[in-house]
UniProtKB/TrEMBL annotation:
PANTHER family: METALLOPROTEASE PMBA
Domain named Metalloprotease TldD/E C-terminal: residues: 231-451
The protein's name in its UniProt record: Peptidase
Family: Belongs to the peptidase U62 family.
Residue ranges annotated for the Metalloprotease TldD/E central domain, each copy included: 121-224
Pfam families: PmbA_TldD_1st, PmbA_TldD_2nd, PmbA_TldD_3rd
Residues of the Metalloprotease TldD/E N-terminal domain: 30-93
Source species taxonomy: Bacteria, Thermotogati, Deinococcota, Deinococci, Deinococcales
Top-rank taxon, per record: Bacteria
Length: 452
C-alpha cells in the first residue's frame, strides 16, 4: 500500500497497512479497529439541554513477541503514526514477561448477522430531537405528582468493527443502535421517588417515547406512600429486571480468567449442580435484538450461543483464546476489551436467564413477603469472588400474592449462588437491563431483609 506520510487512511486501509508492515518485519500482530459516529440529545423542561455529535476512530495493536503481548493504539491513521504505533507495540512486548497460551488464530468464518439494516437511513436530526423532547414532555405531563424529569435523552450509534491478524484473519461488521431513556422524579407528602425506563432498537421507527415515558412515571408513582420494611428472613420474588441486575453484578464469576485466578466461587465446579434445576443461563452474542450482539469477538473468534448453566448444572465458562488454551479447551468467542485503547480480557455479551413456564402473574401467587424490583450499591456491596452481597433495594410488601404497599429503601443480603439454588418458580416473561442482561421474575423461599 502506498500513501503519503500525512494522509489519513480509513480503518480498513490502516488495518491492511499495519498487517503488511508487520509481515514484512516478521512480527506477529493483531489489529482491532473501530469507527463510531454517535448522536446524544438531552432534553430538560421542554428544551434541548445538550446536543452532541461525535465521531471517533482508531486502531489497537497487539504484537506477540517471544510469547509476550505488547499493546499500543493510535487515533492518527497516517502511515507515519501507524509505523510508530507498530514500533511501540513491539517494544512493549519486549518489556513484559511471556504468557502461556498466547497466540494468534485464523478463526473459522463468523455467522452472518444483520445488525445494521436501514434503521437510521434517512432519519433527520429534527426527528431525533423530537424523540428526546416528546419523551421528556410526556413524562413531565403524565401525572401532577411529577415534579421534574432530570434525565431524558436520545442516543444513537453507527459503528464499524474490524479485526485482522498476521495469520490471515480479516473480518468486520457494522452495527446501528437507537436508544432513549427517561427518569422522572415524583413527589407526594414529603416523599420523593424516581424510576426509569428505556427502549433499545436498531430501527428508528420502532421507538415509542410515549410508552417509555408513561411506563417510567407509572413505576415511580407506584413507590409513593412507601412504608418501612420489616427485618428478618422472608419469602421473596425478584422482578426480572432486578434479577438481571444481580446477574450483571456477578457475571465475572463465569469468566475463565477469574476462574484461573481463583477469583470465582464456581472454580472447580464444572459439571456440578450450582443452581435450581429451573435455571438455564445462556450467553448469546447472536441475538437479533441483543444490545451487545456481534458476529465475532475482539480477537475475531466467531460468536455462537453458549450455555453456562443448564437445568442448574454448570456446563461452561466464558473464554478468550488464551484463557481457553490454558484451560485445555477452545475459545467461546468472549474475548473483550474497552475499545481500541484497552487490553484483551474476557466478558459476556447478551447474558440471559431463560424464561420458565410459570405465567408471570402466578410467580408470586399466595406469597406473603417481599417483591424486590431493584438493587443498588453493587460496586461496594457485591463480591463476585465469593458471591456474597449486601445491597440497597426497593420494592413492595406482598400479602397473599398481592401488592400491599411499597417499601422504603431496605437492604437485601445473601449469596448469589444460594439465590439461584433457592429458585422455586420462574416466570415466562423476560425483562432486560440496559447492560444487555435479561431474566424472568423468580420466587425464592427465603431472603434476608434489613428494614429501617
Amino acid at each position: 500500500m502506498t500513501a503519503t506520510v500525512t494522509e489519513q487512511l480509513s480503518i480498513d486501509q490502516a488495518r491492511s497497512y499495519l498487517l503488511e508492515r508487520a509481515q514484512a518485519r516478521g512480527v506477529q500482530l493483531e489489529v482491532y479497529a473501530l469507527r463510531n459516529t454517535s448522536t446524544n440529545i438531552r432534553a430538560f423542561d421542554g428544551e434541548v439541554s445538550e446536543f452532541k455529535l461525535q465521531a471517533r476512530q482508531g486502531v489497537g495493536l497487539r504484537a506477540l513477541q517471544g510469547g509476550a503481548w505488547g499493546y499500543s493504539f493510535t487515533e492518527n491513521l497516517a502511515p507515519a503514526a501507524l509505523d510508530r504505533a507498530l514500533d511501540m507495540a513491539v517494544e512493549n512486548a519486549e518489556l513484559v514477561a511471556p504468557e502461556s497460551g498466547a497466540g494468534l488464530v485464523a478463526w473459522a468464518e463468523p455467522p452472518a448477522l444483520d445488525l445494521y439494516g436501514e434503521g437510521l437511513s434517512g432519519v433527520k436530526v429534527e426527528q431525533k430531537v423530537k424523540v428526546a423532547l416528546d419523551l421528556e414532555r410526556t413524562a413531565r405531563e403524565a401525572d401532577p405528582r411529577v415534579t421534574s424529569v432530570p434525565y431524558g435523552m436520545y442516543v444513537d450509534s453507527d459503528s464499524e468493527t474490524l479485526v485482522g491478524n498476521t495469520e490471515g484473519l480479516s473480518r468486520g461488521f457494522k452495527a446501528l443502535q437507537a436508544f432513549h431513556f427517561v427518569a422522572p422524579l415524583v413527589s407526594e407528602n414529603g416523599q420523593n421517588k424516581m424510576q426509569r425506563d428505556w427502549q433499545f432498537t436498531r430501527e428508528f421507527t420502532e421507538l415509542d417515547p410515549t410508552r417509555t415515558a408513561l411506563s417510567a412515571v407509572e413505576k415511580a408513582v407506584a413507590l409513593l406512600g412507601a412504608r418501612p420494611a420489616p427485618s428478618g428472613q422472608f419469602p421473596a420474588v425478584f422482578s426480572g429486571e432486578c434479577l438481571a441486575e444481580l446477574l450483571d453484578l456477578f457475571s465475572p464469576m463465569f469468566s475463565g480468567k477469574m476462574v484461573e485466578e481463583g477469583k470465582s466461587p464456581l472454580a472447580g465446579r464444572l459439571g456440578e449442580l450450582v443452581a435450581s434445576e429451573l435455571v438455564t443461563l445462556v450467553d448469546d452474542a447472536t441475538l437479533a435484538r441483543g444490545m451487545n450482539s456481534r458476529a465475532f469477538d475482539v480477537e475475531g473468534c466467531p460468536s455462537a450461543p453458549l450455555t453456562l448453566v443448564e437445568a442448574g448444572r454448570l456446563t461452561a465458562f466464558l473464554h478468550n483464546a488464551q484463557t481457553a488454551a490454558r484451560a485445555g479447551t477452545h475459545s467461546t468467542g468472549h474475548a473483550a476489551r474497552m475499545g481500541y485503547q484497552g487490553v484483551v480480557g474476557v466478558g459476556p455479551s447478551n447474558l440471559l436467564l431463560q424464561a420458565g413456564k410459570t405465567p408471570d402473574s402466578e410467580v408470586r401467587a399466595g406469597l406473603s413477603g417481599v417483591l424486590v424490583t431493584g438493587v443498588s450499591g453493587g460496586h461496594a456491596g457485591a463480591n463476585p469472588i465469593t458471591g456474597d452481597f449486601s445491597l440497597q433495594a426497593e420494592g413492595f410488601w406482598l400479602e397473599d400474592g398481592g401488592v400491599a404497599h411499597p417499601l422504603e429503601v431496605f437492604t437485601v443480603a445473601g449469596n448469589i449462588l444460594e439465590v439461584l439454588a433457592g429458585i422455586e418458580a420462574v416466570s415466562d416473561t423476560v425483562e432486560w437491563t440496559s447492560d444487555a442482561v435479561g431474566a424472568p421474575a423468580v420466587r425464592i423461599g427465603r431472603l434476608a431483609v434489613g428494614g429501617n
